[in-house]
Amino acid sequence: MLFDSHTHLNAEQFNDDIPETILRAKELGVTHMAVVGFDYPTIEKSLQLKNTYENIFSIIGWHPTEAGNYDKEVEKYLYAHLGDEKVVALGEIGLDYYWMEDPKEVQAKIFRRQIAIAKEFHLPISIHTRDALEDTYKILKEEDIRDIGGIMHSFSGSSEEVKKFLDLGMHISFSGVVTFKKALDVKEAAKVVPLDKLLVETDAPYLAPVPFRGKRNEPGYTFYTAKEIAQLRDIPFETLANQTFHNTCELFSLEGIM
After folding, report:
1. Which among 23, 91, 127, 132 could bridge 97 via Cys, Cβ 3.0 to 4.6 Å?
2. Burial class (CB in 10 A: 0-12, 13-18, 19+), 61
3. Contact of 5 with 204, CB cutoff 8 Å
4. CA 217, CA 94: separation in Å to the nearest integer?
5. What does the pLDDT read at residue 209?
6. Contact by Cβ (8 Å): 240, 45
7. Model's pTM, two decimal places?
8. What DSSP designation does 257 have?
9. Is residue 211 reached through a cis peptide bond, with omega within 30 degrees of 0 on the bond before it?
10. pLDDT digits (tens, 9 = 90+) for 172-193
11. Rounded CA separation 25/140 (Å)
12. Residue 83: CB partners within 8 Å, gap ≥ 6?
């Protein structure tokens, strides 16, 4: 079994074929998935999906590109849903210096605030970082997130950088990027992450793995990412699949389904 630890089945690209997409995922051994909501519409859809499908769980939070819209009403809304037993993490949160919709200071403030909320609920955090790896590390270290832990979602750093986040107690999740021919740093990073700290994901509908690169990604393609990592590490696919499934369930406090 495989667990897609970060997917956007709530994106408009799936509006017409959600049941079929879930069925295709199961046919590829992807039996569980965490659907990430990062603003009002996507959070609502994520919550709807986890209420509809037994093997779908929600991750909800406020994306760094939406930091300027974070206010008391947003926070009240998050508080209303974070206690749900099928809401398994707070995210995706972090820093995005590529789009820079809001100043770094605003992003950092909202990032830190949501870490504090995650601590209140004792939920792990799912981290989005783009062109901001060093500042992301600095904030996570200063906020001392070891007690709740979390996920470096779609990790794109080097093997040296991955060790810094492991030292903070984070899990490292790889998307289809690890299958890209030129993603040499990511491939090397996937080799050094301890097996018990490794997760797999799609970030669907984005970042489709080879052989579907450039097309719509979907949760079932977690299979191709897991297959690539197993080959890179020279271990049986079943070992990789079972361990990452176990890791995801443990991090999300879903021991009952392991």
Report:
1. 132
2. buried
3. no
4. 23
5. 98
6. no
7. 0.97
8. G
9. yes
10. 999 999 999 999 999 999 999 9
11. 33
12. 121
Which two three-digit tokens encode residue 16? 């017409």
Under the banding of pLDDT at 50, 70 and 90, the label for residue 256 is: confident
Residue 60 phi/psi, 5-degree rounding, is -130, 145
Number of Cβ within a 10 Å radius of residue 134: 13
Q: Which residues does 47 contact at the CB level (< 8 Å), separation at least 6?
A: 37, 58, 60, 81, 84, 87
Tokens of 204: 């669907």
**Burial call 38-54: b when 16+ CB within 10 Å, e when fewer:** bbeebbebbbebbeebe
For 100-129, the pLDDT digits (tens) are 999 999 999 999 999 999 999 999 999 999
| Alpha-carbon distances of 131 from 155, 201, 244, rounded to whole Å | 12, 20, 27
Count other Cβ atoms within 10 Å, centred on residue 78. Answer: 20
Cα–Cα distance for residue pair 183/186, rounded to 1 Å? 5
37 CB neighbour count, 10 Å cutoff: 27
Task: State the Cα–Cα distance between residues 146 and 236, nearest whole angstrom.
Answer: 30
Q: Which two tokens stand for residue 84?
A: 């749900």
The amino acid at residue 134 is E
DSSP-derived 3-state class of residue 124: coil
